[in-house]
Amino acid sequence: MAGPVRTSGFTLLEMSVSVTVIGLLAAIASTAYSGMADVRARSRAHAEADAARHAVRAFMLQHKRLPCPDASSDGDDAREAASPCPSGLQVGWLPYESLGLARPEPARRMRYAVSRGTGADLVIPNGSAADGVDIDGIGRLQDALIAAAQAPAGTARPFVTGKGTAADAESCTHVVANPAFAIVAPVADRDDAGGSHPGFDGINQAMADGGALCIAAPGRAMDAGYDDVVVAESASALLGWLATSTR
Fold first, then answer.
1. Which of 13-17, 137-141, 171-175 is predicted least confidently?
2. What does the pLDDT look like over 199-216, one tens digit per residue?
3. Alpha-carbon gap, residue 242 to 16, rounded angstroms
4. With the CA atoms of 114, 117, 120 and 123 taken in that order, what torsion angle do they form, in degrees rounded to the nearest 10?
5. 7 part of a folded domain
6. pLDDT of the residue at 8
7. Is residue 6 part of a domain?
8. CA-based, 20 to 30 A from 135: which of 95, 125, 196, 210?
9. Is the dihedral of CA 144, 147, 75, 61 positive or negative?
């Protein structure tokens, strides 16, 4: 006797399984795409921050000082604050046009911090060259960099904190180093903290909104609540680079 003949088409069970599988595949594809987009955005921020670092170095070589921050509220000026750089101005926006860089859209504008301590003001170097002759100002710049490198670490100048590990706490009471300058590039508002400039995450939010001197570590890992890119140059590293570049 012949068995029952199956009609063509899907049963309700088969249809349900197919829809579930398609949904899972779509979710996986969406997550993968989102992850790739995040990686691309952070890679772009890395490239822009590195370009800014080289532009600051080139500015220093040409002008024998570090640039003054852009003191406008949202980085719209894109230029150094009025000369002479206001006393005490250590944190602001990257002065794009003064550095010869194109001004980006507001959400991608980078924050810039520069060390300006007593006897070690890297924006307005003072002192004199060791040989008493300083025609182009390079001696004063070298003196200021040496003084900044030798100054004790503290919270009166822009400083980077720890990487957020058990042995290296991320806290604005934990000073790791005072860089000659630092640049912070935002990527996305991963911590959902909002603020006037929500692209900056974690402790960098206070630096972006209010000019706080505390900066996340350059080596701080990206996580669910943080994706900023930080580059920082020490005074000793700049001094070595300057010596090599002016031979």
1. 13-17
2. 999 999 999 999 999 999
3. 68
4. 40
5. no
6. 57
7. no
8. 95
9. positive
